[in-house]
Specification:
The chain is built from 1 helix and 14 strands. The strands form 5 sheets. The chain has a 4-stranded antiparallel β-sheet, with no helix packed on it. A 3-stranded antiparallel β-sheet has the order 5-6-7, with no helix packed on it. Strands 11-8-14 form a 3-stranded mixed β-sheet, with no helix packed on it. The protein is mainly β. Bound molecules: calcium ion.
Length: 186
């Protein structure tokens, strides 16, 4: 029981009344998912309407995951007071995917740095992370843009232990998942 204006009110009633009051004072600020294309010259071009992600809503967390296992990362977004959204990546550009298999307990290779050389740009590096995003966590699979390269790329992995793995003659549109060559420490 709480007291409102000196009168006893059940807690749930008071809480609901306060929430309604706040919602009226601060209405939703709906907006689109703002999307950009990397132009590879340190510039980005907005693609929000082109990619059809301009439906206004209040979205909070977003996670990248290859739901259909076709090698590109799809997008899952939660929506305030609405069903979650799943956005399929329909891009057909060549890519290289990597899924590390570390030793227990860090079986996903969290903290490892993966570098692809010779792809869309001279060098791309991505660190495998677990969580660290607002209200969401993405799949630990890492996807790089291969660009025009069909083969001849190289992958380097710097594990948390400091050990390194190397794969040469990497071809586009492949998933590399067996790189358990370094003991990881969480
Ligand atoms: Ca996909």
């Amino acid at each position: 029981m709480v007291y409102v204006d000196g009168k006893p009110v059940p807690f749930q009633t008071a809480f609901t009344a306060q929430r309604v009051k706040e919602m009226r004072r601060y209405p939703n600020l709906d907006g689109p998912i703002v999307a950009f294309r990397n132009l590879q010259n340190l510039k980005f071009a907005e693609q929000t309407e082109v990619w059809g992600v301009n439906e206004p809503a209040v979205r909070q967390g977003a996670a990248l995951v290859d739901l259909d296992n076709d090698g590109d990362l799809d997008l899952v977004v939660n929506v305030l007071n609405g069903p979650a959204e799943v956005w399929e990546n329909l891009g057909a550009n060549a890519r290289v995917a990597v899924e590390l298999q570390g030793l227990s307990p860090n079986t996903a290779g969290i903290g490892a740095q993966i570098t692809l050389r010779g792809g869309a740009v001279l060098s791309q590096t991505h660190e495998v992370v677990c969580g660290g995003q607002y209200l969401s966590g993405s799949q630990t699979r890492v996807v790089f843009a291969a660009g025009a390269a069909k083969t001849g790329m190289a992958l380097d992995v710097k594990w948390r232990s400091g050990k390194r793995s190397h794969v040469s003659s990497v071809g586009a549109n492949r998933l590399f998942g067996s790189m358990n060559m370094g003991r990881n420490r969480s």
